[in-house]
Amino acid sequence: MNIHHKQMHAQMIDPFGRHVTYLRVSVTDRCDFRCVYCMAENMTFLPKRDILTLEELDRVCSAFISKGVRKLRITGGEPLVRKDIMTLFRGLSRHLESGALDELTVTTNGSQLGRYAQGLYDCGIRRINVSLDTLNPDRFRQITRWGDPDKVMAGIAAAQAAGLKVKINMVALKGVNEHEIEDMLLWCHGQGMDLTLIETMPLGDIDGDRTDQYLPLSLVRARLRERFTLEESPYRTGGPARYVTVRETGGRLGFITPMTHNFCESCNRVRLTCTGTLFMCLGQEDAVDLRAPMRASESDELLCQAIDTAIARKPKGHDFIIDRRHKKPALGRHMSVTGG
Ligand code: SAM
Ligand code: SF4
Q: Is 203 within the bounds of a domain?
C-alpha cells in the first residue's frame, strides 16, 4: 500500500474520538408528499445539474465504505421517487455481499413500497423505516397534504410480505396526533413492528408556526407510563433512538429527542445531501462540499481528502432552539435536504 492508498482507506475518527461508521444519504430533495412539519406546499427544488448522479452517489458511498462506514441509510426527500433508484440499491448491494457493509437501509414515506419492496429485499435490505404519523385517513391527508393513506398502508403490507422488517417513525405533533400515540403503539406492536417517536425539529421554513407543533417526548413518555410498563432496553440500532420495551405488548418503542436530550456524545454519523454536501451534524450549519473534489478527478484521492477535512471538523454537539420571538427555525435548511 502506498501512502495515498493508506490515506484513502484511513478510518474516520473525529477530534472527540468518535468513529464515524454511519452515513445517511439524501438521494433527492423531491417528494410526492408535503408534510406540514417538513415542507412548505410550494417548494422550489434544486436544478438537476446540482444533484449527484446515481453513479456519483454510488462513488461517494463506496468511498465512505472504504473509510469505515458500516451502515448506510438512503433517505430524501422521498428516496423511492428518484428515477431509477433501484440501480443505486443494486450497485450498493455489492458491499453487503463483500461484507464491507453491515447494513443498507431506507427511510421512506411508504408511497412506493408496493412497487419496490421486493426489489429492496432482493438487494439485501432487511430493515426499513416508514414514516407514518397517523392511522386516521383524514388526518393523514391533512398532515401529508398530498399523501394517499391507502397506498401507504398497502406499501407497508407489501414490505412485510417481502420479508422486510418495518419500523414506523411517527413525529409527535402537539394537538395533531398526540392522542393517537397509544393506538399507534398497539397497532405497530400488534403487527410486529417497532415504533419510534420523533420530536419535531426546527429545520427549514414551513408554512406554519413551529412553536405550535412542538410536543416534548418527556411528556408523551409520562402519559404512556400511566397505561403501560416501559422497561429500559439496551437495544440500539446505531442511530440516536433510545428504546424501551413495552411489557404489555412485548414490542419496542423508541424515542428520538433532539430537543430535550443531547445524544451527541455517542454520535457516529454524518449526512450527505443530494448535492454532495456533507453535514457533520444535523444541528449545525458547518458543511463540506464533496461534489467539486469528486467531479475534479476520476480518482478518489481528492474526495477522500475532503472527507478527512470534514471529519476533522465534526463538532462536539448541537443546540437546537426554536426562536420563540421570531418564530423562525434555528436552521434554514429543510429536513428533506439532509434527510433526517
Ligand atoms: N420522505 C421520507 C420519509 O418521510 O420517511 C424520508 C425523508 S424524511 C425528511 C425523514 C424523516 O424526517 C421522516 O420520518 C420525517 O417524519 C422526519 N421529519 C421531517 N421533518 C421533520 C422535522 N422538522 N422534525 C422532525 N422530524 C422531521
Ligand atoms: Fe416528504 Fe418525508 Fe418530508 Fe414528508 S417528511 S414531506 S414524506 S420528505
A: no
Instruction: Answer whether residue 191 is part of any domain.
Output: no
3-state secondary structure of 116: helix
Number of domains in the chain: 1
Strands 242-246 and 252-256, bridge-based pairing:
antiparallel
Cell of 288: 463540506
Do residues 171 and 131 make contact, with C-beta atoms less than 8 angstroms apart? Answer: yes
Report the separation in Å between the CA atom of 33 and the middle of ligand 2, taken as the mean of its atom positions.
6
Determine the angle formed by the axes of helices 113-122 and 85-98, rounding to 10 degrees. 30
Q: pLDDT averaged over consecutive 10-residue blocks of the chain (340 residues)?
A: 61 90 97 94 93 98 97 97 98 98 98 98 98 98 97 98 98 95 98 95 68 86 96 81 94 84 75 96 86 97 96 77 48 61
Confirm whether 252 is domain-assigned: no
Question: Is position 216 within any domain?
Answer: no
Ligand 2 center–CA 29 separation, angstroms: 9
Ligand 1: which residues within 6 Å by Cβ?
31, 37-38, 75-76, 78, 107-109, 131, 169, 171, 198, 200-201, 203, 335-336, 339-340
List the domain range (segments joined by +) for residue 162.
3-166+267-338
Nearest-CA residue for ligand 1 atom 1 is 78
User: Can you give the pLDDT at residue 162?
Assistant: 98
